[in-house]
Description:
single chain; alpha+beta; Nucleoside Triphosphate Pyrophosphohydrolase; seven-stranded mixed beta sheet; two-stranded parallel sheet; 4 helices; about 15% helix; binds 5-O-phosphono-beta-D-ribofuranose; binds magnesium ion
Amino acid sequence: AAAHVKARCPVYPGSDTHRFPVPDHTVDWDTDCPQYSPVKYTAPTVLNKPAWADPEIGSFSPQFNSIDGSVDRRSHEGSYRVQNGKPLNPHGRTGLEGRGLLGRWGPNHAADPIVTRWKRDSTGQCVHHTNSQLPVLQFVSIKRLDCGEWAIPGGMVDPGERISQTLQREFSEEALNSLQASPSQRENIQKRIAELFNSAGLQVYKGYVDDPRNTDNAWMETVAVNFHDESGNSVSELPLQAGDDAGQVSWIDVDSSLALYANHLHFLETVAKERNAHW
Ligand code: RP5
Ligand code: MG
Ligand code: MG
């Protein structure tokens, strides 16, 4: 497993909590590290017992590595270890124990919709990059309100929700602001994007996310799926409007030099290569 980097960011997001430093060579749980003493941190928003969060372990002992009622506690990466009743991050040490900002012990499942189109000039011709000579892809990106980084408009899978639903719902909420729309507007949005989202889509990633919110006991996982508007007259024609946890939304040229949230750039690399686009 690749060493997570963002999951070891010095200051935990949304807090003044500093992680216990974890150099590359001590990431692996199997590497002895007697001096390791992770900082304990679970955000007040999580301890307040919102519907989306688990209780503290002790009073609560979930069914790890299985479907626990309507919550899927299985990892996309196979079975994870549980130590003293707490799940262990499958990518190793993060310098922080507890759940931080994450609601679930163990995997916190998300889905990432990567909506793409070809970049076109004013006459409608596809634009080719001067260096690579390859056509340039654009994807719908949102600027996250929590950290200000550009990201794929993904979100958490609700208990019992199908991933195909999460992909469409999160795209509607964050990139089309469906939560603020009237019921009839919302219905219109769903109609306009249903065709694209009902198409098979290209799954480009399934597994652990190197997310800055990860801890030793709670981590993000995702399924990232590319929905491509080949002709440019499906989603491309919809007005984008940021909503929910998105501050801005925009079509952005896909290129290896982008700086994106978590390991989202890696998902886009797969999309670009699969579609024979500029990278
Ligand atoms: C990332 O966090 C996932 O890849 C997904 O984009 C996102 C889900 O969390 P929220 O956007 O709901 O905060 O790890
Ligand atoms: Mg969301
Ligand atoms: Mg989101």
